[in-house]
Amino acid sequence: MNKNVQFFRKWLVLLVIGVLLVSSLSGCGSKEKVLKIGYITEQTGVDAYVGAASVPAMQDYVDEINAKGGISGYKVELVVYDTRSEVTDAVAVAKRLMDQDKAVAIIGPSWSSAGIPLADIADTAKVPMVATTASNVNVTVAEDGTLHPYMFRVCFIDPYQGYAQADFAYNKLGLRKAALLTDIASPYTVGLHQFFEKHFVELGGEIVAKEGYTQGDTEFRAQLAKIKDSGADLLVVDAYTFKDIGLAAQQAEGLGLKVQIMGGDGVFVPELLEMAGPQLEGAIVTTGVSDVAPEFAKFNADFEAKHPGVKASIYTYYGLDALMAIEHAIGEAAKKGDVTPTAVRDALEVMTDVQLFTSVVTMEPDTHNPHNKPLLIMTIKDSQWELTETFQPE
Amino acid sequence: MELFIQQLVSGISIGAIYSLLAVGYALVYSVYNFTNWAFDGFMAFGAFMAFTGITSLFMPFWLAALLSIVLTVILSVGTEKLAYNPLRVRKAPRLFMMISAMGVNLATVNIINLIYGGTFRKFPVDNLQPIFIKGVSIGRMDLMAGGISFGVLALLWIFLYRTKWGLGIRASSIDILTASLMGINNNAVAMIVFAITGVLSSVAGVFYGIKYAVFPMMGVVTIKAMIASIVGGLGSLPAAIVGSMILGILETLVSGYISSTYRDLFSFLFLIIILLFFPNGLMGKSSDEKL
């Protein structure tokens, strides 16, 4: 064998022993109680903007907690792992947080495609997870209707928006006859409209027309002529693509159909205004938390001053929401005794009227979704978005 | 009754757009016996050229439309020279021409996508207010589009049936080899056919852009036109127009009176039934007489 190799081997063994000694000594030194909160997020890959906007704000908040002496005497550490914007990596790093880091709770993921497989993994490992922006129904409740006991979220589910829209249209706008124009190929639109219809009818409203189209369609006059004939006073187009509501508005104008038009966050994009601003004058578009909301203006300015080049977004807000929910749950668990992942889970489930970053949140114990999150009502005025109000269903 | 007439009017205006495209398919198919899938991309190209003419070069509408026609004709004839002609000269099977057309189409659509982005744009012309007759709305744009579409088709008909060149094309459509033996210049016929295709796709693209929106995938509508030309009787111009009108009206009536959710299901089911009884299309003739 080559002498050089032998020489290196000797040194390598010594080095490894040295590292082990040092690390074990430092382990002995800290007797402080430190809880690890995991955060799995996209720091590289196509969705890297999610991690970029959220990690600095969450680290700042953890530093603040520790500066104040921690949560009920427990110092906290934020352990951030990159999912590389891939579901497989998200699963791998979440497992690492559960098995190796022994995290007391995990924040994330931000996408439903990772949230759905992770729900099962969290249940098995018995470590609670709080998803940030994963809005698919099946993240917290499996398709067969059973609840994932260890999976929570702080954003509203996709169809909730339909529920809130119905509430707003009926109670605030006083509209009674709604027509739905549904993209039958989009689960997003179909889900929103199911919830809209259910709640609108519950309230006493009437669905006078239910028309459909398929993704990629550009021609809606046949449907709109029927809607005009039905005497509707509200047209709901919760399209996934802004083109659909834009074209529908243009063609409605052409047919002389004058109704209140309403859309969801799928069409809350500036391009819509360029495409059909004048035709959509007075139209209402609902969206969840948004950086346009005035209550976040001060936070945004402070955050952007402290972290130049980073812009606060909904990922910042929902990340903080999840972190604050876990902070609350750790505090509750500490009051009752030991802070274990299961104790944190139990506290998350019964969380009631807790001020988080975006709003006061009550967790629904049977769905693990936040109860009645507020919705922003945007109105199109002079081809510009205007925030009319923040609406919370009763 | 008002609703029915409204649906009929909408159906005819949709049929007019399908007609322009269906005629383009029919023309190429009848002469060369292959489906020119590149039509889809040409249509988007035409719309984007007119769009650029107005927004970036500040041209008036008519000049931008003319620019679009000229450039689309160049693209169409260029495609024939570079992609189809070499295959024909080497006697490649028809299928290869179709694959080649698909390639040209993908390339065109993707290049547009790269340059302009995939978003939807409003065509920068003022929306004309529709005319209302007894509560039925008739779009001025639809009237204009319909008028110009049929004007273009009428010119095409005159060209094909009243000129010597038209005779050459018709002769080629029956038997291209014999026609060339009789002294008809094959290459010239190809140039003319693809130039006409360019004009049709540009006009269709511009109108479609005005009526709906300008976006790289706008050409997917050509699949409907293709179906319309088959139902009418592939390879015949009047049949392509009839097929387009039937499809346009059928779609709106199905949406209006059966179900908009199942529009395509019912419309295409009906078309399949037509084809079961008329395997060559409604006005289809056997292959010895075309155009």
3D structure, described in words:
The complex is a heterodimer of chains A (394) and B (291). Chain A has 394 residues and is an alpha/beta fold. Chain A has 2 domains: 34-156 and 296-361, Response regulator (Rossmann fold); 160-287 and 375-391, Response regulator (Rossmann fold, 3-Layer(aba) Sandwich). Chain A contains 12 helices and 14 strands. In chain A, the strands form 3 sheets. Chain A has a 7-stranded mixed sheet with strand order 7-6-8-9-10-13-14, with helices on both faces. A 5-stranded parallel sheet of chain A has the order 2-1-3-4-5, sandwiched between helices. The model of chain A is unreliable at 26-31 (pLDDT under 50). Chain B is mainly α and 291 residues long. Chain B has one domain. Chain B is built from 11 helices and 2 strands. A two-stranded antiparallel sheet of chain B has the order 1-2. Chain B is globular. Chain B starts with a helix and ends in a 14-residue tail after the last helix. The A-B interface holds A 182, 184, 210-214, 216, 218-219, 221-223, 225-226, 229, 241-243, 246-247, 250, 253-256, 271, 274-276 and B 3, 6-7, 10-11, 14, 119-122, 127, 130, 132, 135, 137, 139, 208, 212-213, 215, 217-218, 220-221, 251-253, 255-256, 259-264.
**Helicity of chain A, as a percent range:** 40-55%
Strand content of chain A: 15-25%
User: What is the CATH H-level superfamily of the largest domain in chain A?
Assistant: Response regulator
Termini separation of chain B (Å)? Answer: 37 Å
Provide the residue-averaged pLDDT of chain A: 88
**Mean of all residue-level pLDDT scores of chain B:** 86
**What is the number of strand segments of chain A?**
14
Q: How many β strands of chain B by DSSP?
A: 2
Poorly predicted tracts of residues of chain B: none
Rg for CA atoms of chain A: 25 Å
Strand order of the largest sheet of chain A: 7-6-8-9-10-13-14
At the first level of CATH, the class of the largest domain in chain A is: Alpha Beta
H/E topology pattern of chain A: HEHEHEHEEHEHEHEHEHEHHHEEEE
Succession of helices and strands of chain B? HHHHEEHHHHHHH
Class inferred from helices and paired strands of chain B: mainly alpha
CATH T-level fold name of the largest domain in chain A: Rossmann fold
Number of domains of chain A: 2
Rg of chain B to the nearest angstrom? Answer: 19 Å
